[in-house]
Amino acid sequence: MVEATTAGPSNEVKPKKLSRTKIGTMKVSQLRNSLRRGKIRMSGNAGGAELHALYALYALRLLLAEEEPDKHLLEAATGWCAASVETLTGEARERGLHDENTRWDLVEDLIMDEHAKLLGNNDDDDDDDNHDNDDNDDNDDNDDNDDNDNNNDNHDDESKSESHSEPEETTVKTGAKDKGKVKAAKKTDPAPDKAVKAKPVPKKKGKEKAVESEDEVDSLEHPAPEVVNLLLTMIYSHSVRIKAKIPMTGAPELSAARFRKRLDEIPKIKTEKDVEKALVSSKTSAVLSSILKTCGDMIIPADGDLVIPGFPEQVLQFVVAKPDRSLQSAYNKLPGRDQTRLLFHGTPMANLYSILHDGFDPAGQLLGQATLWLARDPGSSLEFSMKAGSIPPESEWGHTPFPSWGVLLGCETVRLGATANGITHITGAMGSAMVRYIFLIPSDDTPEVASMPTGAQIEDGMRKALKSFRRL
Which intervals carry biased composition (Basic and acidic residues) (predicted)? Predict the structure, then answer.
């Protein structure tokens, strides 16, 4: 999500939540007001494409207050903001990026890809320092009796190279007003004095650099506090379960154990201010910022028309607003999407991150086929959300407001397989179910929580909510 502005009663410019796909509807005056409030430098004669580019860099945290933007990155971003969807799609395809997106999703993806290449070009000289820091981290982990994490860290080395791939020379048309082309960065392009000044997470040498002030994050939109708590809880639990690091955009070079230590240093998140304070703290800013960049816009709280009626009030509801692109793209290609069904799947908290990012794992074999179990009624999946196999309570994130809570997933499904007892569905196609809702179930089995509605009672409300969300 990014932010647009609207005039309030006192003619002050106030933030208004606006999805990234609608940034193109912002007027020049709105863009200037947002950038001015964020203390972003801009020329007085900057046109709409350049203002959109500056705002995109700002919203992606690639440009901080009163910083000069990297000239190459701004030039490329300006060209993409003026380009047609066809041009953007072709550029994304050439770079191996997901190309089935809206115009502004494509612009964001191209900017992040170009920025990653610039980082790769300019960070080669820092490799030795990073290796030294890794060694120190591993020594600290041994002191904390977490040898297993150090042994497993090596398995994630390949993931570090994803944003440092060899760039190819490509071009982007800048639209009718500018017939020229913007060249992407070559390996040898930026000179040392053209390094990107505003990295998603500043490169550390010794101590990590925090965001300079709360003013730099105050006007950028963050997930709701309850979403931040959910992200921290599920990521921490996932790291404990797999005993390894989780690849995050711009994450500092830390082992799994030290990564979790930094999460434990994040205080309780109750308000937006708590999120902002954690983002400017020298101890927690890098880790929290990397998490929000990776999946901060994936989940939103269900409120208003998005709340599914019939569930006990103790059950917290969230919407998967931006599902993983590769999972959604594969799902979109399946036949039968005009006759989907809404089914439920229960799972422990420790499995939630991998399900959202990697899809469902087979629950076993049935007739020689990998099996995914889904239920017509939420209550039928309830026990699986609390089942053994999750991590022990003492291994959860220290400040989680959801200790030992279970997870019930509301799924939209196609290509259903067999049906058991009329309420349980078994399918061999792992990608045939997309998670649309997340319901958090309190650990205490109160009568209210135990009395879940049936699938028939909530299906109409859930379909109406999904339709309402897709219109946003």
Answer: 152-196
